[in-house]
């Protein structure tokens, strides 16, 4: 009798878990892209976020290392499933992003590297929009005083919380007081289509 009760309870628990798993994937929708494409883009975005975190920490050596890693990840994006005519514009945009990364590793001054980050951000945002990346919602955030306290600059995030890579934790004037300075100015959200 206990065995039957245990088996019945196990089947009930498993069916509840499976229905929960199904509902979470149904609410997101099915990606229009291949798993290999999505995985390669996600890996590149993980490297991008590590790069912005290096800027948060004012760590030029880590910025150079993360920029090199991100360039390799961008080189490895797998366009499996795309028609050749549909990848020309995204590939051109990725090539511009790679040039930003090359410049970033060449520049010695962290302010110059941050200018490259701003350009890189716009190229990656354009790429994600052109391919209609649908695995995650991507936020485009802006620091209103990134350069000389008057010129704005942007960065990407997977959350709506602000962690400013332009002012960071070790700013010579503000220290860590401006780490949350900035706002969300746009999003890419193809997750529900």
Explain the overall architecture.
- The protein is mostly helical.
- The chain has helices at 2-28, 35-56, 60-75, 88-106, 110-130, and strands spanning 138-147, 151-157, 183-188.
- It has a 3-stranded antiparallel β-sheet with strand order 2-1-3.
- Strand 1 and strand 2 (151-157) form a beta hairpin.
- Helix 3 runs antiparallel to helix 4 (88-106).
Task: Briefly say what this structure is.
Helix content is 54%, strand content 12%.
Shape: globular
Class by alpha and beta content? mainly alpha
Major sheet description: 3 strands, antiparallel
Average pLDDT: 86
Number of helices: 5
Regions with little confidence, pLDDT below 50 for 5+ residues? 1-27
Task: Please state the CA-atom Rg, rounded to the nearest Å.
Answer: 21 Å
Major sheet: arrangement of strands: 2-1-3
Question: Strand percentage, roughly?
Answer: 5-15%
Instruction: State the total count of DSSP E strands.
Output: 3
| Pattern of helices and strands | HHHHHEEE
> How much helical structure, as a percent, in the residues?
40-55%
**Head-to-tail CA distance between termini:** 49 Å
List the helices and strands and how they pair.
Layout: H1 2-28, H2 35-56, H3 60-75, H4 88-106, H5 110-130, E1 138-147, E2 151-157, E3 183-188
Antiparallel strand pairs: 1-2, 1-3
Helix pairs in contact: 2-3, 3-4, 4-5
């Amino acid at each position: 009798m206990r065995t039957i009760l245990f088996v019945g309870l196990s089947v009930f628990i498993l069916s509840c878990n499976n229905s929960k798993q199904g509902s979470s994937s149904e609410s997101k929708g099915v990606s229009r892209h291949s798993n290999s494409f999505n995985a390669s883009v996600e890996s590149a975005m993980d490297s991008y976020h590590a790069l912005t975190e290096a800027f948060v920490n004012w760590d030029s050596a880590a910025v150079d290392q993360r920029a090199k890693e991100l360039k390799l990840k961008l080189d490895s994006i797998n366009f499996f499933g795309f028609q050749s005519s549909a990848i020309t514009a995204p590939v051109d945009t990725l090539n511009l992003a790679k040039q930003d990364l090359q410049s970033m590793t060449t520049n010695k001054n962290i302010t110059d590297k941050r200018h490259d980050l701003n350009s890189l951000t716009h190229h990656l945002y354009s790429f994600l929009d052109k391919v209609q990346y649908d695995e995650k919602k991507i936020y485009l955030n802006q620091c209103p005083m990134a350069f000389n306290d008057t010129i704005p600059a942007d960065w990407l995030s997977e959350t709506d919380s602000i962690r400013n890579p332009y002012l960071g934790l070790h700013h010579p004037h503000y220290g860590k007081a401006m780490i949350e300075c900035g706002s969300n100015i746009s999003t890419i959200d193809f997750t529900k289509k």
